[in-house]
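Final report, results section. Input specification for complex C-07:
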Amino acid sequence: MSILKKLLPLDIASGMKLTGKYFGRNFLQANRSKKHIHITVEYPETPISIAPRFRGRLQMLRDEQGEIKCVCCLACEKICPTQVITISKGKKEGRKTPFPTRYDFEMERCIFCEFCVESCGFDSIILNHQFELAAYNREDFSIGMEGQFQDMFRVSPVGQHSISSTKNPDSPDYT
Amino acid sequence: MFKNEELEINLGPQHPSTHGVLRVKLRLDGETIVKCTPIVGYLHRGVEKICENKTFFQGQVWTDRMDYVAAVSNNLGWAESVEKLFGIHVPRRAHYVRTMMTELNRISSHLLWLGTHALDIGAMTVFLYAFREREQILDCFESFCGARLTTTAFRIGGLREDIPPGFIKQVQAFQDRFLDCIDEYETLLTENRIWKRRTIGIAPINADECIAFGVTGPVLRAAGVKYDVRKAFPYAAYAEMNFEIPTRTEADTYARYLVRLEEFRQSHHIIQQCIDGLPEGNVMAKIPKVLKSEVNEIYHPIEAPKGELGYYLVGEKGGQNPYRFHVRGPSFVNLQALPQMTEGRLLADVIAAIGTLDVVLGEVDR
Ligand code: SF4
Ligand code: SF4
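Structure output:
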């Protein structure tokens, strides 16, 4: 028996049977069955589903009147482990609360930990769902209140895909 | 110094089988290894020193980046050490969720180990199968905390938020198919004659040597020592969990493989208990906005996938950051056993030995 076991590669055959099963299944059903059997997706064409809690790029929010929600309490600047947020306090006509004249965010050093969002007691910042954060110049990673392609309110054109494939961060059902 | 026929070569630092930037200096006599010296430090970032300059809240993000394969375990260690230092009591529900996440992380870490270890030794297929399941776990992490690898999963005092709706269903979906997946890995490897030839009797280290080197985790358990921090010093919700510590006595690469496969099953069992017994309640303890420590020191070990991960924290009076922080990383300590495992053996076995120790260079170098 043991000689037979040694001669016949049954152990290897059972492994081949398993891989053959998967090969056959994927080969025959690949584009036919309605059931989603693929593990991979054809990425830029097929949008990727992102979890609602996904931590992407930092973004500032405006309230219903279009006012910047941030009131310059500097909590986010203080908690940030990598110190990538720099805020300057200022005043604006017709606004009681302080107003950020400068809100600089250096994305290349951000580690997407969400501590800033947690520390903000005014819900004025979120981490949106943008994960395509590439840029062509180093300066493009320093994001401020104003910018040519992206700023703290607009995301970069490179990242439009990842934004469009998820829920709108401004909508109320966003978590 | 050199005998006539001896030749010194470097394995790494840029070698695909060293799982990072590990350099191993090998002195060879033919194909036999005369001397083996692991050289570490290529990825040194000074995590301990950085954490001493960050507050207790901020420190957690650096633990993510030590053992990046098992970030959740590292987070748990940090959160629990700080809680121990300040005497914070975490709600029971948070303990359960933490246990569940850590066990999922143990599975994902072992899956990465299984895939890459088999790939190093020459079994390509298992890699694809293991990563298929790992993907599902990382999806669970993504819905739980928003990130897949550098999770920053827990907060001091509990969890940041309760589990998201549908999360239990997602984990249950993984649970339902994972036992079959383990059987698939077993079909591919356990009886496979090539795999057995490459692992049985390779890179042995007996129990006494393991203890002398301070080796922990599956390597120690494969040498027959029934030591697991989860049982020895229960933390999180492990005291309420019912599970076994798998051990073997052969102390070779094959035995370690079997131990880790059994740990898959035990982790699966623990996750199921967490799902079934998940208590209601809040997930965050009341903690002050600013943590100011007293003069105090603690050592808190947890069972990371690779072995005993211990955090040593010293607090100074009124300090917002640790006065001293030290990590006892399992990968670093386990790596010391490499010369013992390989000297006097063949060159090809070094790859198996590095794989079976399951080192992550982010944690070795820190
Ligand atoms: S996500 Fe973290 S690193 Fe990035 S800006 Fe916020 S606090 Fe700083
Ligand atoms: S924590 Fe919120 S309100 Fe305070 S400065 Fe930061 S963004 Fe503005």
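The first strand of chain A starts at residue 58 and ends at 60. Residues 1-40 of chain A form one domain. This concludes the modelling results for the funded period.
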